[in-house]
Amino acid sequence: MQRTETAAYYQRLQNRVAEYVENNLTASFGIRELADYTHVSYYHLAEIFRSTYTESLGHYITRIKLERAAMLSAYTPLNLSEIADATGFATKHSLSKAFTNHFGFSPGKAKASVIRTDSINAVMDGITSETQYRHIVQSDFPFTFKQRTLTGGVLAGYTWHFGHASPGYEASMPYLDDLLSMTIAGRARRCIKIFDSVNFTALRDYRLFYGIFAEDTSMLAPHFDGLALPIRRGTYLVFDVPAGHRDDIKHHITRFRESLVWYKQMFILRDFYDFFLLHDGPDNGGEYYLCTGA
């Protein structure tokens, strides 16, 4: 067996950690549960994570839950008790205290503003103030959408940690052939998922999920070692994203989410879960999926 202290091993371990956290956000868990899931000792897992990232594993778990709470507060009508239940906090008071300590403002403030200037959304869109952000979300634009019900499937792929860089979409994506080799050719679509919050996660911590959407989990190759995230079952708003440059595509997705849902409240979400399916070919647009509930 190869030495475990290798980059490939670390990446696989990080995939398992991210997979567990993503699939268990509503539960109360800690490092010991993650250690059991990854089959690595408590201390070894904590040390690997600390040496690879700029934060401890415990801080990472708390941060992900709080950023999720911020998204639920901003984009849904859930009250604080419901958000606490959805993010694994014992009470709304414990959530509120942890939230305020982390962000420097209360959960209620997240309902009034969903931008921080060190987030990836602000950095990549060149947003330097809340005034500039509000001008974007208040603007009118044409759009088309349909509704679709998904009853199963999986998002399979990998995450990339941006660090302090600010790459374009192309620079953050792997080679498509490697990803599509996981599946039977032609039966899956390329997928981008907002793994972390584009507005509440600082750029240094942000990870982009990129892979495929497969409606049949048997399509995954046996050797696949990335993340396999069960699709959220329910009814989705499916917005048509016109073809264009990668950055233009990202701007369209931002408008659907920020303007139509957060600011204009034309659509009401019971939870926040989304992903983007790309059409075949370069810069051919795609479909943006926003789950409205079961």
TrEMBL record:
Lineage: superkingdom: Bacteria
Keywords: DNA-binding, Transcription, Transcription regulation
SMART domains: HTH_ARAC
Residue intervals of the HTH araC/xylS-type domain: 15-113
Gene3D superfamilies cross-referenced by the UniProt entry: Homeodomain-like
Pfam short name (any one): HTH_18
Name of this chain's protein: AraC family transcriptional regulator
Organism, scientific name: Dawidia cretensis
